Structures are given as C-alpha cells and as structure tokens.
Amino acid sequence: MARRVVVTGLGVCAPNGVGLPAFTKAMDEGLSGIRFMPQLKALEFACQIAGQPQIPENRLPEYFTPLQLRDMNATGIVYGVLAGKDAWQDAGLSEGQADAPDWDSGIIFGTGTLGVDKFREAILKVDAKNVRRLGSTVVLQTMASGVSAYLGGMLGCGNQVTTNSSACTTGTEGILMAFERIASGQAERMLTGSCSDSGPYVWGGFDAMRILPRNYNDRPEAASRPMSASASGFVPGSGAGAMVLESLESATARGAHIYAEVLGGAVNSGGQRGGGSMTAPNSEAVQRCIQQAVAHAGIGPSDIDTVNGHLTATTKDALEIENWAKALGRSGKHFPLINSFKGAIGHCLAAAGSIECVASVLQFKENKVFGTMNAEDLHPDIEKMVDSNYIPQKTRAHRTEILAKASFGFGDVNACIIFKRY
Amino acid sequence: MSQEARYQKLKEIVSIYLPEDVSVNDITLKSYFLDELNINSANLVDIVLDVEDEFDILLENDDMDGMKTVEDALKIIDAKLTRS
To answer: What DSSP letter does each residue of A58-113 carry, written as one string?
Structure first.
C-alpha cells in the first residue's frame, strides 16, 4: 500500500526573488527577473538578457562557512544551498545532530551542468600546466552531485543523497523520484529540488542554437512571452527551487504545516520518434505522460482546475496547449486555468521544474493563480483552443483544488506531477 | 621576516581550515594538522597553496609529505626561504 506524501517545506532562489517572501510577492505582483547583462553584450551574444538571482553578499555567510565560501565559484551550488536550506527550515526541520546522520531523510537535488565557472577556472590552470594549483574544491564544485553533496553534509541526511539530470525536466522529475521513495516506505522525508548555473558558458550554447530572443536587449522585461503571438524564443534563466516532501504520518506526527499533497505523476520519453527529436517533443509522448499522471494520481481529467505549463515562449507553445487539450479532452471554456511563470523568470533550464513547482504550490497557500507576464497578445492558435479568460494575465483569486504541472526537456523527455489541496 | 612572524602568518593561514570546535589558540608548534587540529586531509593541499602564495615559494611533493606538524611546515618554509 503506497503511503500518502505531502509538501511541508519550500525554498527558492529565483531571478525575481530570493527567499519565499520576496518570490511570493514577485509572482503575485508580476515582477520580472529578466535583466540586461553587460557581460553578455561584451561577449557579443545575440541575446544579452537573462534571469539571474540577485543575492546580497551579506546573506551568504548565513548559509556557508567562510571556508566553503572561500573558493566557491559554482553559482548552481550557491542557489541550490540557499533554496535547499530554506526549504528545510521552512519545514521546521533542524540541521541534525553533530555525530549521527538522520537515516530517514534524504536528498534528490538535480542539475544540468554544475560549477561551470569553476570548471573554466580549472581548465585554464590545467592548460597552463598548473594542475598542482587547482586546490581541493574543483571536484566538489564541478561534479554533478556537488549540490546534493553540499546539502547532504549541511543537513546531515543519512538516506539516499543523489542528483538527477534530465535537462529542463530535471526539477519536476526529481520531485516524483522523491515522492516514490517516500510512498514506497524507503524514506520519511526527502529534500528535492534542482539548480542551474548562471553565465555565458551555460547560456552560450542556446544563443548559438538561435533559440533565444534577439530583439529585446533594450526591453528585457518584455522579452519572455509565453503563449504570445509575438513569442520569439525563451529567455535563459538560472536559480534553484526546493521542497521538502514527507510522509503524511511523519508530517502529522511533527505537526508540520502542509502546503499540498502530491497525488502522483508520470515521467516518460518520446524516444525521439514520431516527430520527437533531441530538441522537439513527440506529442503522443507528452499526451501519454499527462494521461498517465492523471491515472496515477487516481483522479479524472476534469478534476484538474489549474495547470502550470512548461510553455517556454517559443513557437512550440501552441503545440503544448494542443497536447494538454487532447490529453485532458478539454478545450474552450472547459479548459482549466493555465499559466506559465517563464514570463517573469525566463526559462531556468534544469531549475525550471523545481522553481515552477514551488510557485505552483504557493498558489494553494495564497489562494491565487499567478498571472502570466507578456501574454497580452495571445497566439491565435492558442485562443482557438482555450478561452482567453482561462489564461490569467494578472494574478487572480482562485482556490485551486487540483493542479497539474508538466516539464519537458531536450532528449524528448517529459514529466507531469499532480498536486492536491490538503 | 622573523621566525615568530612566519609562525603567526602560518597560524593565520591555517585558521580558516580549522573545524568549528578547534580554535586558533589551540595551534602550537607541535600540533599535528590532521590528528590534533582535525583539519580535513583534502584541505592540506589548500594550505600548501596558501603557504606558496604567502611566502612566494614552491613546495614539492616530498615537502608536502613531510608536513605533518606546524613545526614541520615552518622548517620547510625556512629551508626554502634561505635557499632562495
């Protein structure tokens, strides 16, 4: 018998807000985290705007020791630790005992590529025949599991501590992995989330693929336009989102605040067949993923009243809406409320799923559905499928009962998760 | 730089690597870096790099292997400085 799993802690380090209060306010009021990046201009990027968390220097010593900060050059680890420790604290959990791990608590914290700036630093030294000067932290900051390793030590977790990676699906997939581990009785609590580094070495590859907007360098806040007729590519972002999942028994026994219940979900791949490729989704796979998530959650498609899409602000947004409509068998005025947070934060890549799940779950607490920025000129194909009243431009009061959130990634991979009000 | 000044410099370098329950005042000439000061062995390579930068010397692998105590480190630094 699978156990019930609930969300008891949230943490976030996003381009438009670091920490839950700032992020909640930004999402509520529609504050953008997309800014002009002088460094990208200097490097002659076509897209010179991006989303990067603005962390006051004086906050870092609250999360790291002076030694940990000393040679730290992995933005993903910084974001992940801020979000992860915040989520842990938000759940009312302590950092454990000095000499014994908490065997029932684990971590699944994903990333795409980690410590890119640190890796560059190391490459330059190695190429200069100076390998002996690398110091002791290059491995720790550039191994993909670096973020979960840092968090694991800080929190003293003795259950599974690992890192998953599935491109832009990473964060949502990680939550489902953590859910499974608790539901099956292998852990009581899992910190799960994902992070993505900032900077030209992460974003350059996307600029080279010509999939980022090139005409908004002077209007950064208007650049990320999910579901819009004028969408011209996703704006690269970065940051981290984190949540604590916990067995209902454990949460109840501790008297923890419960944000929402995770009913279930699904992950799959389109196999890069049937229209799917390394970069494009197989629509049948997307629809199957959504339908499997609904079935796994034990609900019907009509029970979903709110959807948070992947919706990156490319020409593929209309195809995603079509896939939701077909998968749920709903359209027009029968479509659930749907939004995309990428208008405000850009596409945070490996961190997208976790940051957006944090925002999705916050909607339960706030009794609101956050608006989608820059979608005022809805794509005509989308308007044909969804009544425009179901795509809130501004944050709207709404008591979400059941929310579906999906993330899709390069490699033709999909994840869909179902949250329910508790 | 006097012997005492070098010792103080070395203490400063080592202090950031000390675990929370070891204070800079616990450092003596006879202190073992790993067993007594409880410094993470991975950080010994960082201490060596800091020493190189501070005293503008180059330490060889053999030097590092012989650096068990604070006094060992000072002797190696002295030797390098007098040679150069």
So the answer is: GGGGGTS-HHHHHT---HHHHHHHHHHHHHHHHTT-----SSS-BTTEEEEEEESS
Which 30-69 residues of chain B touch chain A by CB within 8 A? 42-43, 45-46, 49
- For domain A5-260, the CATH architecture is 3-Layer(aba) Sandwich (3.40)
Q: Residue A112: its pLDDT value, please?
A: 97
**Percent of chain A surpassing pLDDT 90:** 98
pLDDT of residue B63: 87
Q: Which two tokens stand for residue A292?
A: 């499997």
Q: Do B49 and A66 touch (CB under 8 A)?
A: no
Q: Where are the domains of chain A?
A: 5-260, 264-420
Tell me which residue range forms the domain holding B50: 3-83
Which chain B residues have a beta carbon less than 8 Å from that of A70? 16
Domains A5-260 and A264-420 share a fold: yes
pLDDT tens digits for A75-121? 999 999 999 999 999 999 998 787 899 999 999 999 999 999 999 99
CATH code: domain A264-420 is 3.40.47.10
For an interface test with A, which of B38, B43, B46 has the most A Cβ atoms less than 10 Å from its Cβ? B46
Whether residue A1 is predicted with pLDDT greater than 70 in this model: the reply is: no
Alpha carbon distance A319, B36 (integer Å): 64
pLDDT value, residue A186: 98
